[in-house]
Structures are given as structure tokens and as C-alpha cells.
Amino acid sequence: MNLLILPLGLICGLVLAAAAVSVFMAYRAHRLLGDINGQERRSQTEKQDQLQDLRPLRESVDSLAAQVRELRSHPQAAAPAGVPRGGFNLNKRTQVLRMHRRGESAEQISASLELPRQEVELLLKVHSIVIQNV
Asked: Mean of the pLDDT values across residues 115-122?
């Protein structure tokens, strides 16, 4: 029976140790909750800062999207292409050479046939080279 009855000092020591461990665990839990709350606040602050940094980018993307929608709803008509001018055909070449034989100048020929003066001069030079070689 003596063995079953523990000394009173030992029981008090165990109770005190259990109380101390309980108080320590409560303190530690309180600190951990405080750390978690602090991290959450820092995380929310960082998130707000990131959103502030992204705001100008978001505004520019929104304005570009509005411009794209507007362009899609009001497509601009393509600029009318100029009337394509044909190449230098044989008929024009013949007319240039006839007018030159009659003694008209390159400026007069280009004005009457509505051709660039350089084109008329080039044709006349090529013709004179061909005639010299024949």
C-alpha cells in the first residue's frame, strides 16, 4: 500500500509542472496567432501595393480595349487606290517616236500624252542607241 500512495510533494510537483506546461503552451499559441495575424496583414498590404502598381497598366489595357471595340464597330473605309496606270505600251511608244520625228520636244510630248518627262526622255535615248547600233 505504501507504494500506491505517492508522496504529497511529488503530486504537487507534477501538478505544478503540468500547470507550467499549460501556461507555456497557451503563451506559445497566443504568439503563433499573433504571428499569423501579422503575416496576414503584411500579405494584404503587399497585395494592395501590387494592385496599386497594376492600376496604370489596367487603365491602359482598358483604354486600348475600348479603342479596339470602337475600331471594330466603325471600320474605316480603305483609301481608294489610284487608277493603276498601265506600263508603257507600244501604242504610246509609237506616238512618242512619231512626235519626236515631227520635231516636238520631250516636254511637249510628255504633256500631250500625259506621260512623265523622264520616261519620254528615256525612251528617246534608248531608241537613239538602238538606231546607232543597227
From this structure: 90
Q: What is the Cα–Cα distance from 100 to 77, expressed in whole angstroms? A: 44
Q: What is the pLDDT of residue 53?
A: 83
Residue 129, in any domain of the structure: yes
Give the model confidence (pLDDT) of 82-103 as tens digits: 555 555 567 888 899 999 999 9
Instruction: State phi, psi for 36 to the nearest 5 degrees.
Output: -65, -45
Residues ≥6 apart with Cβ < 8 Å to 124 = 96, 97, 100, 106
Q: Is the pTM of this model over 0.70?
A: no
Domain that holds residue 60: 9-73
Q: Look-up: residue for cell 520636244? A: 105
Q: How confident is the model at residue 32 (pLDDT cuts 50, 70, 90)?
A: very high
Residue 3 in domain: no
At 97, list the grid cell.
517616236
| Structural domains of the chain, count | 2
14 & 63 share domain: yes
Residue 109 and residue 127 in contact, taking contact as beta carbons nearer than 8 Å: no
